[in-house]
UniProtKB/TrEMBL annotation:
Residues 1-28 are annotated as: Disordered. It comes from the Bacteria. This is chorismate mutase. It comes from Caldovatus aquaticus. It is an enzyme of class 5 (isomerase). The lineage of its organism: Bacteria, Pseudomonadati, Pseudomonadota, Alphaproteobacteria, Acetobacterales.
Length: 305
């Protein structure tokens, strides 16, 4: 190939052009021409994105019409977690990952609503509650979200079919008996299906976290945690509960206790998705406690770190 360039090639034109063009050369400064070209390209990309979104929603409409998912809530928290993890794994370039997740949360929320009525009950003692914000960010701008003054009322709304899901504070060791809603969770009728926020750029201790409760179990995602509620005799020590769980193959990631009259209730968080795992369920049933019950599972949230 010849190394010489034709006088019309862009490089040649650039070399030949004076460093500062005379004012008469063009009515618009070069930057304005660039801006118009860039905006035209942005418009073309917006149209392409919009076309794809319209196709995606038409497909969700077909999925709903097929009745392949049967009755019950359209929400599939496990599937949503897999979609977000896949997109985060392929994400590159200057768009913040948090913006990617925010866009897809709106898409997934609208796609859930397209399949049937969907609403949220959130325990929110005040209007600006962090858990109300978590619910809004996860379930989207258009989803009906009802703030309720106690966790018990939010759970009752789901049990009565008045809300599709409840958003409740992630349990903490210092919770009062009223705040420790997990002691009353009527599993498997209602169970934990997700943990919020699913994505955050970095972990900040003290930021609000929530669990989502629904009537339909979440699907396994490959990276899940299961919640187990143990009922033991009064005065049972934390060390003994933890040791018994570990001996059965369920080393707890966290273990919270609530003393209730003649019983000690414990909430253990363990690695993996145990529902449907016959071996794990047999080991759980063989634990030396009055009762061991699964309270649900959630996809392990992602951070950008
Ligand atoms: O895969 C499904 O079951 C869907 O309903 C589709 C879809 C989606 O838009 O991708 C929508 C809502 C569900 O929570 C999960 C995924």
């Amino acid at each position: 190939m010849s190394q010489s360039r034709s006088p019309e090639s862009p490089a040649a034109v650039a070399r030949a052009a004076p460093a500062v063009p005379p004012a008469s050369a063009s009515r618009e400064p070069p930057s304005a021409l660039d801006l118009a070209a860039l905006r035209a390209e942005l418009d073309a990309l917006d149209d392409a994105l919009h076309d794809l979104l319209m196709r995606r929603f038409a497909l969700v409409g077909r999925l709903a019409e097929s009745r392949a998912k049967g009755d019950g809530p359209a929400l599939r928290p496990g599937r949503e977690a897999q979609i977000l993890r896949r997109l985060l794994a392929r994400h590159a370039g200057p768009m913040p990952a948090a913006a990617l997740v925010r866009l897809w949360r709106e898409i997934l929320a609208a796609s859930t609503a397209l399949q049937g009525p969907f609403s949220v009950a959130v325990f929110a003692p005040s209007a600006g509650s962090g858990h109300a914000r978590l619910a809004r960010e996860h379930f989207g701008a258009a989803t009906p979200i009802r703030p309720l003054p106690t966790p018990a009322q939010a759970l009752a709304a789901v049990a009565a079919g008045e809300a599709s899901v409840a958003v409740l504070p992630a349990p903490e060791e210092e919770d009062t008996p009223e705040a420790a809603w997990w002691t009353k969770l009527d599993s498997p009728r209602t169970q934990v299906v997700a943990r919020l926020p699913f994505y955050r750029p970095r972990f900040v201790a003290g930021d609000p976290e929530a669990l989502v409760v629904s009537v339909l179990p979440a699907d396994p995602t490959g990276r899940d945690r299961t919640l187990i509620r143990l009922e033991a005799e009064a005065g049972q020590s934390r060390a003994r509960l933890a040791a018994a769980l570990a001996a059965a193959g369920f080393a707890p990631l966290s273990l919270m206790l609530q003393r209730e009259g003649a019983a000690t209730l414990a909430l253990a968080e363990v690695e993996g998705y145990l529902a449907g795992d016959a071996g794990a369920l047999a080991r759980l049933a063989a634990l030396p406690f009055a009762r061991a019950q699964l309270l649900g599972a959630y996809a392990v949230p992602e951070t950008g770190e």
